[in-house]
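Take a record:
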Amino acid sequence: MPLHPYHLYPKHSTEPFGFELSQAVVDRLDQGDRLGYYHRDFCGYGLAKLEDEYVYGIVVDGYMSASSALTASQGGSSERRVFTNRSDFVAWLAAESDESLSGRNTSDYGNQRIDRWRLLSFVEGRE
């Protein structure tokens, strides 16, 4: 697999992910793939298509729930985003950046967050 020159992007870049990358990520989600770490306890943040919703949220023990009514201890978060429309989800992700999803001003800042490198790895099948 070709490696992307991720080192060219500053850590927590404010450059938006863009439509092309976001579209490719959502194409994989539509195939049933999920972006998230799979280990015990807090696994950071992930992306998934659960039932008929596109979800950005906390992954715990390798799983993310579709319910948008979860408490923080159940995997809910004020950062959690749920979309029922593919084009709205693509537009949201395209406008996000490493910085906007870094969790600045939270207790889990930078901890297993979604960033450009993880999105590129996911699209290329490396994550």
